[in-house]
Every structure is written in C-alpha cells, then in structure tokens.
Design a protein that fits this description.
about 130 residues; alpha+beta; 5 helices; 6 strands; about 35% helix; globular
Length: about 130
Amino acid sequence: MLANDVIDALLLGFAHVEKDYKREWGWWRYRLDGKLFAALLTLPEGYKGYRAGRVLTLKCDPAELPHLLETYPCITPGFYCDKRNYATIYLDEAEETVPAGLVEALCADAYRLAVARLTKKRRRELGI
C-alpha cells in the first residue's frame, strides 16, 4: 500500500534525509544536505489544470523519465519542479497501475541521484 506514512518511513530510512513542511506550498519535502529529492503533497481539485490527488514528486534519471511517462499514465512530468529531472506519481492511481515495488525503487533512485550530486568530500563526511 502506498500510504503517506509508508512512503514517509521509506524516505526517512535513507541516511541523512531531512524532512520539513513547506506551509506555503503544502509540501512535505525530503532533502539530502539541503537538496530536494522528493516531495509528498495533495493537489486540490482544479489546481492549474492538474488532476487532484495525493502525489509523490521524485528526482528522476532524465534518461529513464520518457519511458516512465510513456508506460504509466499515473506518472507525469514533475509537478512544480524541473520536468526534465523530476517525475510526479499519482499515488492512488499507482496502487492499481504500476508493478509492485516500482514506487519504492524510484524512491531509492531519487536518493541515489541526490547522493551522486554531493561532492566526494561531502559524501565522506556523511559516511555515504
């Protein structure tokens, strides 16, 4: 099940992840060393043409993103993020349309991409 608390526990299970709430946006943000790699939020009905629902926005490999967008209708270009590097997953739809474990794997990939953006020195300091 892709409940918010399950996703929250998964993302916070990665080393050195910081979570905060951006009240102005209504986002739970997950960051590594201050850099966003995931956000959990609920889009209201009729917001700027987007579908309403619980969404998870994740940093994504730009080479993998086109395949995800073509294969899964519940995955769209990143909401309010760089659409070349982020994907948004409509969680309620994903429970029925994506293979088991895909959302978890995409969370791990997002974290891996965030780690890769750190300098070697910073990775050593954090022990990751």
